[in-house]
Structure formats: structure tokens, C-alpha cells
């Protein structure tokens, strides 16, 4: 996925600032939508299966689909622009959350997470948008917004999930869908395209462009980046593994209601946000 350097006349300073703020909001609402169902996931899955593995499998299938789709979404955005990919993917996330709320069978829950995982690769496109509109001097600072969005999202998402679970156990999923639809509206009406036609990739897509291992190998060959990727992957494995399974432990060991699970994640998200701010 290519990144372009901002050129004079592409986006003026005021529009760049507004676009960065909007992209931050888009990423934040994506993370909120992802984490909002954490407090209620064990209770929703328990309607159809008593196996704890099913709860973690839902997280696993989401991550697997995101892993497969993110490079492809990036390559597509290099050719048609960032804005259309963000619009389609965020709308897909909304449909995934609504399907999760409707439920009705375990396979529906898995289908919803597959849909949301495929479209959830939009964070890579959002990152490319930041690179497009940032000068080299501002790029590191602007990319810091991604970490802030994750930290703040892990505070607001579980808090909102725990709060809306008092309405119904399905309410957090529907709330996540509404937030994603709000994202679609914001992108459509307020977010300008960051990649002008003359800077887009015009070569046809190849099969290798859809292979995430190719993208990883290309990045790993760059000096110093391979070790950084490995460290990041190990951290993500531990961090996401703990987050996807701890709620099952809280329910089975302490019979914790959703609002208490949400509160525990709010504390953890608060620490993450404080250390990244």
C-alpha cells in the first residue's frame, strides 16, 4: 500500500487538520464498535453453546478475516482512493454488528464476525490516509493518533457496552452498528479524498496482492522492520489473547455481570491511554 507526501495545493492546512480529526474519530468509533460487545459476548454465545472456546473462536475468526483482508483493502485503496474503501468497509462493519445483534444461531454470530473482520481491515486504509495528508515532519505525531484511538476506544467501548447491556444483552451490538452508520455519514459528507487520481496505482491487481504473507515478507526485508514486526505480533498475540478470553474467565469464575466486565476493561483501557498520551 503506497503512501503519498502532501503536495502544495492538495489539501490546505485547515482541511488537513479537519481531516485528521475526522480520521481519528473514525478510528475511535471503529475501536469502540469492536470493544463494545466484549462485556456481553460470553452471554450471547451461551444462548447457543456452553463451550468457552466458541467465545474466543469468534475473536479468532474476526482477526483471521482482518489479517486476510487488510492488505487487499490497502491495495484497492491505492487504485480507487481511500474514501470509497472507508465508506464500503465501515458500512460492512455496521451490517456485521446488526447481524450479531439479531443472532438466532451460532453460525449467524460467526458469519457476522467474518463480515466485520473482512471490512475491519479499514484501519490500514485510515493509516494510509494519515500518511497521505501528513508532511514528513508531522507524520510520526499524526500516527500517534492511532495509539490514542485504541487506548480511548478501550475505555469508551467497554463502558458503553456495559451501560447498554442494562437495556438488553443485544443492545451493545445494535449500538455498535449505529456508531458505524454514523461513521459512514461522517465519511460521506465531511471527509475529502486524500489520494488524487494522478498519484494512484494504475497497474492491475494481481493474485499476490491479496496474499497477506507477501505484504509481510516485503516489509520484513526492510532494515530493522522485521524485528519490529515480530515484536508487535508477539505483543498483539498476548494482548488480544488475554482480552478475548478474560471475559469468559470473569463470567465462569465470578459470575460477573456485563457492567462489571465492562468496568474492568475500562480500567485497563485507561492505563493504556495514559501511557500512550
Protein architecture, described:
This protein is mostly helical and 277 residues long. The chain has a single domain (13-193, 207-276), classed as Growth Hormone, Chain: A, CATH 1.20.1250.20. 76% of the residues lie in helices and 0% in strands. It has 11 helices and no strands. It has helices spanning 13-35, 41-45, 52-80, 82-102, 106-119, 122-133, 136-164, 171-190, 212-220, 225-254, 258-276. Helix 4 (82-102) packs antiparallel against helix 6 (122-133), helix 4 (82-102) runs antiparallel to helix 8 and helix 9 (212-220) packs across helix 10 (225-254). The longest helix is centred in the last third of the chain and has 30 residues, at 225-254.
CATH class: Mainly Alpha
Write down the secondary-structure element order. HHHHHHHHHHH
The shape is globular
Mean pLDDT: 85
Helix content: over 70%
Taking all Cα atoms into account, the compactness measure Rg is: 19 Å
The name of the CATH topology is Growth Hormone, Chain: A
Helices, by number, come to 11
- Outline the low-pLDDT stretches: 3-10
What is the beta-strand fraction? under 5%
Straight-line distance between termini: 27 Å
Overall number of strands: 0
Q: Which CATH architecture is right? A: Up-down Bundle
Largest sheet: none
Pairing-aware structural class of the strands and helices?
mainly alpha
CATH superfamily: MFS general substrate transporter like domains
What is the strand and helix layout of this fold?
Blueprint (H helix, E strand, L loop, with lengths): L12 H23 L5 H5 L6 H29 L1 H21 L3 H14 L2 H12 L2 H29 L6 H20 L21 H9 L4 H30 L3 H19 L1
Helix pairs in contact: 1-6, 1-7, 1-8, 3-4, 3-5, 3-6, 3-10, 4-5, 4-6, 4-8, 7-8, 7-11, 9-10
